[in-house]
Amino acid sequence: MKLKDVISPFYVWKRAFEKPYTNTNPLETRDGSANYRGFHANDIEMCIGCGTCEAVCQNAAIDMVPVEGVDTTMSDSGLRPKIDYGRCCWCALCVDVCTTASLRLTNEYTWFSSDKDEDFRFIPGIDKKSWDDNELGYRRHEGLELLDYKRQAMDHIPFEDSTKSFIEMFHGYSAKQAKLEAERCVDCGLCIAKCPAHMDIPEYIKAIRDGDFELGAKILYATNPMPATCGRICTHLCETVCSIGVQGDPVAIRWLKRYIIDQIEPGDLKDALGEIFPDNGKKVAIIGAGPGGLSAAYYLRQLGYSTTIYEGREAAGGMIRYGVPEYRMPYDQIDKETNYLKECGVEFKFNTYVGRDIQLENLMDDYDAVYFSVGLTIPYGLGIEGEEHPRVLSGLQVLDDATERVEENPNIGKSVAVIGGGNVAMDCCRVSKRYDADVHLYYRRRISEMPADSDEIHESQGEGVVFHTQAIPVRVEPADNPNQVKLVWGEAEMVTPKDGGRPRPVLQEDKIHTDTFDCIIKAIGQEGNYEFFTGEYKEKLETKWGKIIHNEYMQTSIPKLFVGGDIANPQADAISAIADGHLAAKGIDLFLLHPDDKQMKK
Amino acid sequence: MMLEKLKQTFTVTEVKEQKKNLTFFTVPKEQMEMMLITLRDHHDYKHLSFIVGIDMIEDGVFKLTYMLYNYETNHSFGIHCNIDREKAEMDSFHHLWEQVGTYQRELREMLGINFEGSPRLEENLSLDEGWDGPPPMRRDFDTKEYSNNTYFQREGRVNYDPREYMREQLYPTFPKTESDKLLNGGGKK
Fold first, then answer.
1. Using the beta-carbon criterion (under 8 Å), do B175 and A60 form an inter-chain contact?
2. Predicted ipTM?
3. In chain A, what residues touch B147 (CB-CB under 8 Å)?
4. Hey, which of A11, A71, A194, A563 would disulfide with A548, CB 3.0 to 4.6 Å?
5. Which residues contact residue A586 at a Cβ distance below 8 angstroms, ignoring those fewer than 6 apart?
6. What is the pLDDT of residues A43-79, one digit of tens each?
7. Domain holding B24: CATH number?
């Protein structure tokens, strides 16, 4: 052993009485530069918990965690990023990719703790830190965006030509457009909750990126047996919560859905989906071949039920066929979907109107369960004097006539007033334009309050429909020509009620106008027709404000009877009816084959 | 004019006058040394400002750029040279300018380009001792995979998938879709 080895431990002790070289807090530091990448700050109100920061983090430094005071809503997962500063490398990709621009880095880079167990993991914006209000630090540079905010435009027949025929107006995406649009999706999945049918949107968009359309079709059918329909006319609520939509155009989810299913030829669906349907020996009757009925039939077949659909008309589709005009929803697309259901073993009895050709009692006796989804078919009246005039037509009837006899003018003449602000009103306007009529739309409130889709409003205006808003119909008068009718209407002022709430239109008595038309089309809503309920069923069926009361699996007050569609949900759109059908199939299965289940009345 | 003269001896391509005092061009790998010597000794481009490398993975090359500067005319030449990505080797020019050795060390460390004979080439400038991963600035370097394999996760970390969390919170009773099965239990996580 050398002498040095013996002495050196004592040499170290010498230092024990000197001033330490290490500093205690506060450290004397320089401020980080203005663009420094230091600790994160997150605007909790702006953040929607999409988790894109977590997905992009190359060091797996971010966890998405629930936090107190932030609720999960349709447009906010309620989760917030928690950052492990033992792993963060300050690359700021999370800031660059943030869909809301809520996340940024501050220029604070020092952190002091005398607790060796402190875990050095923070939730920016929730765990209060000294740097939270630090304005300096790294933010995304303008113009250097990782996200693509611009939607691929969908080509369509120009407005000057679109009104000349009933040819489908929108062409659908090309392969290149679809791929580019699919690449805009950040795969966050916020949209799934908002979709009434909870379609697995990010996964089918991924199938487009991967070019695997069979897988895409399977994902679509897992929650929706009418993707060709919904790919065209869905109310696309999903797009209202798309995280890309916070700062740019939301991803065109609806058009991407259409793109997938358009890649599968009508006859190829069976091979593409490759489904095998079991048989459990139970049978279910379905009343109405609209989206709600078709959806219930499909998911019941998947569970092994034999299903028969009773439909009063001669073809399937319900309001999709007889209400939505062909330029939005070509009939061959409805046929494509319906034919596949036939291949799945769903039996259709067309021209069989329940209540006339067959009675509800018979179905209740002959089947193990009955599901009905008959839609809203009776138009609301205008509630004004003179509306029984023969030139006042029902919007639904006009649309129906345009389906049944497209080559014939549905008796609307050449000048038309449409009353209403929903999608039926827009359809009536645009159908009338296609019969070469001059069309005026009257709506009580403002355009921003119209229940119609904004696309529909935009396209109606594009096709030359004249909009009269804040216009209240006062009465209908006969015209000199018996084939014409006069609409007396008044201008309205929007008045906010004293107790707050939605502004109401109030008629201005001194601003009354009279216009003459060949017809007036009323399209202000419709209600259900429950005349086929008789006897004890009529007594037992519970309704509220015209809609059927049901439990969460669509079971009505009559245990064996399930309901869905416009008569059962407040949205009254196709996708909600499809979701109802899916839920009811599960409910019927619980009711019939799960005796231990407590959720169903037995 | 100078470029015209150089073109008589060298294969000069892709000439681009970026701005008044900066011109880029490309020469083949084997002509690079002579080009640098010619510019330094006969045209007064005495200063080597820097060398950078870019991984042009789509073209299968590393693009090296040697920036030379002329103090008299205040003009720079950026000389590009593409080298095969699969056989990432380049001649060492440390004998022309002393600082070249340092740039070459960096290019070896970050892109994995070999410069035969360059001094202290194997010594890392910034990566940890014992770094055993591939060169991290290569674009096929998967940072996440490397960090998952190399660094342990701290205990007590829990991560929630937004879509699953929203299902539990907002619509737990809706029939679970078959897509998990379709995707072989795949999905996001």
1. no
2. 0.89
3. 58-60, 87
4. A563
5. A299, A553, B175
6. 999 999 999 999 999 889 999 999 999 999 999 999 9
7. 3.30.460.80
